[in-house]
Structures are given as C-alpha cells and as structure tokens.
# Entry
Amino acid sequence: MTAVHTYASDVAFTPAVKAIQARKGSREAYGRVEQRGWRTEVDENLEAFLADANSFYFATASADGQPYIQHRGGPKGFLKVLDKQTLAFADYAGNQQYLTQGNLSENAKAYIFVMDYAHRRRVKIWGEARVVEDDDALMDALMPKGYRARPEQVILFKIAAWDTNCPQHIPQKFDAPDVAAALAARDQRIAELEAQVATLNGQAAPEQG
# Structure
C-alpha cells in the first residue's frame, strides 16, 4: 500500500529520518525545505538534464527490503519523459538475472539517481516503477534509433518526488567521446594558427637580391 505523505519530501524523510535530523540538529533546516516543497513533476530543467544523460542508476528492493542497484546506459536522452510525472526507457536484454524485474513484481518502489560528472550535478528521483512486456509500439518509440542493443521490455517510472544535490565531493570526470572531440577541436585550432604563422613568416621574409 502506498503511504500518504504530508510533504513530497516525506518519501525520503521518514519519521525515523526526521528523528535523527532532530537529534543531530538539522531538522529545523529541513523543515523549511518541506515547506518549500520538493518537486513532483518534470520541469524544463529536469527535462533538459535527462535529455543530456547517457547513464543512470536504478534502485529497487525486494518484498523484504533487500536493495539492488543496477546501472542503465545508452545514447543521450534514452531515459525519456512521457508526461509531467512519467519517465520511461527501453530495457535492453542483458545477463538474464532479472533482479530488477523480480523486485518490481513484488515491490513497486524504485529510485533513479542521475549523475553528471562533467558539470558536477546530480538528480535524485523517487517513485514507483513497473515493467511493460506487451507493448511493441511503446518499446519501438523508446528504443534509440541505430543503437546496438536488443530491447526486451519497457520500464515505466511514475515520479513521486525529485530533488538535486550540491556538487560537494563529486569528482569531475568527462566521457571519452567528449574528451576526444575537445582534443580534435584543439588540434584543428593549433593547425590553423600554425598555418597563419607560416603565412606571416613567408610574408615577412626578406627579398633575396
């Protein structure tokens, strides 16, 4: 049964969490966060962030609470926004352990954690998820064109709340293709400048008489 929350952040700030916040002195500050409210719908900023993401972590738990985190990757934007409260992605065939699907069959609660190392940003999304195995049209719509993977099913994620984190302690890392593109642009610029220098040197060379 889905819990009824007074605030959107109650999906994370359970009574046990609030008790520890009170004991350690942060409850007053997070009480103000509750009043402002965590976001519960996709806005332009989240949509743009997800459109640029090529990787995220997907957490589920079994009926008895055993957690499991699985990485999901693909071309940028493979985690798609269907509407203001629904995300979806084509679930590719893998090692056939089916831990995520098994967990979701008995516990719909799920969590998406998206990390942008290059810009030192992260987004946390709480909600519930379900597996869709019999909608070929939806799977085709979600499958990135030209991506070499076999879609096995679709996972739909209904957002309960989402929030961002500060950049503290996030190491800055860059994807290899982005580094390669930056180096190629640098090398091209160096070549252009060297050509300009050679031209200027030729123009400045004294006449031989």
In short: DSSP finds six helices and seven strands in the chain.
